[in-house]
Write a structure and sequence with these properties.
Elements lengths: L5 H21 L6 E5 L5 E8 L3 E7 L2 E7 L8 E5 L3 E2 L3 H7 L12 E11 L5 E10 L2 E16 L5 E12 L12 E15 L1
Length: about 200
């Protein structure tokens, strides 16, 4: 009979325990309170048409922010994203995206979204996030559609909540007009947010 060290036996149990936590969290509504975005478990994704033949996708790797989850209070949501962290898995293209043709990261090193209103459904879950996005020197009103993912205690004694939020922007509204027709006008933006309760 072959014996295995305890660490090899316990790892699968830890994995299934984490799966159990995630299952419970998905069924629970997030508790009211102040939250800070966990940048290591949050992503900002975007997609845009390329030459009308494919959908180019990318992400931003540097995000920070906080928010208040309470339907009786202002959301206090504040998200800052460093534009130089754009990542489309292609070094030359990413360098071009950082140039004045697109994000112009030297002049506009961050994009910023702040929310002034949240819409809730009858169960008290957030459904829409209304605010203003500042990008490329322009500030425009933006509404994100929100999907709660889950919430609950994490394995380290804290409390976490997750949300997906998406919207569609017109890049020309923010002064990004390079290569019209070749690059789509509409850009889909998705925030996959995991946050810890403070």
């Amino acid at each position: 009979m072959q014996f295995y060290p305890a660490k090899y036996i316990l790892k699968p149990f830890a994995f299934f325990a984490l799966l159990g936590f995630l299952h419970i969290a998905a069924a629970e509504g997030a508790a009211s309170g102040s939250y800070r975005i966990d940048p290591e478990h949050s992503t900002v994704l975007f997609s845009v048409s390329h030459l009308g033949t494919s959908e180019l996708t990318g992400r931003f790797n540097d995000i920070e922010g906080s928010f208040v989850l309470d339907k009786d209070k202002a959301p206090g949501l504040d998200v800052t994203i460093k534009t130089a962290s754009v990542d489309t898995n292609h070094e030359k293209r990413d360098a071009h995206l950082r140039s004045p043709d697109f994000f112009n990261v030297k002049q506009y090193p961050v994009m910023h979204f702040s929310a002034d209103k949240v819409s809730y459904d009858q169960q008290g879950r957030p459904t829409r996030l209304h605010g203003k996005l500042t990008l490329h020197g322009k500030t425009k009103p933006v509404t994100f559609m929100i999907t709660p993912v889950g919430a609950g205690k994490d394995p380290w004694g804290g409390y976490r909540a997750g949300f997906n939020a998406s919207t569609t922007l017109k890049r020309s509204d923010f002064g990004m007009n390079f290569m019209p027709g070749g690059i789509g006008e509409e850009v889909t933006v998705t925030l996959n947010i995991e946050a810890t309760k403070e």
